[in-house]
Amino acid sequence: MQSPPADAAAPARRVLVVDDERALAQMVSTYLARAGYSVSEAYTGPDALSMARALDPDVIVLDLGLPGLDGVEVCRQIRTFSDCYVLMLTARGDEMDRIIGLSVGADDYITKPFSARELVARVQAVLRRPRQRGAGSSRDQAHREEPARLFGDLTIDPAGRSVSVAGSAVLLTRTEFDILDVLSARPKYAFSRRQLIDEVWDIAWVGDEHIVDVHVGHIRRKLGDDPTTPRYIDTVRGVGYRMGQGAAT
């Protein structure tokens, strides 16, 4: 199903809604279309993958329980060809599902049952992230002019949105890069979880703040950083995280 954007005069952001409960998918799609998004639907895992490749959406709303291929595997495969935002739908109380979903590259999650308005607000929140603003924004301009940041053998290029360790490229999701970008921009500053959420997600974001811990753990694994003796990201007990002082040059 393809829904027309509410405002045909401006290019609409594309959202792919994936859920085998067609009534739920159609309800979510209706609300997103009313909010001005161009919305498509998929009801199976294989269809979600093929539509993600064909449509190149900005956001995918992805249910975990799908026929043909579950949501975790769909997300894992999407991350091999797309860095779009992925918003996972999970059952209430299934903490392990949320952790697994985030570990394979989901950016955020929302638990069922939820209101369609809440989901639309969450989609709007991820698309309001600072790096999604127009090319003339002060942060974008600063990134274009900023040289790479060096932390030992870790190189972070804000302008190119790339990361490497000892010359080998490290593939991060959008959310993972944004967290590392915020931490490395102020390497002596200890950020609380809430501050990182405000910087990376949105000040209006609500949910479990420990979502930050899952993403930081994923970044550490990709960087080869041992959390017991970290070089790149330090845990500041009782506060949150800061860039590892042992890695600074």
Automatic annotation (TrEMBL):
The keyword Amino-acid biosynthesis does not apply. Keywords: DNA-binding, Phosphoprotein, Transcription, Transcription regulation, Two-component regulatory system. This is Two component transcriptional regulator, winged helix family. GO terms for cellular component: cytosol; protein-DNA complex. Residues 14-127 form the Response regulatory domain. Pfam families: Response_reg, Trans_reg_C. It comes from Intrasporangium calvum (strain ATCC 23552 / DSM 43043 / JCM 3097 / NBRC 12989 / NCIMB 10167 / NRRL B-3866 / 7 KIP). GO terms for biological process: regulation of DNA-templated transcription. The keyword Electron transport does not apply. The modification 4-aspartylphosphate is found at D63.
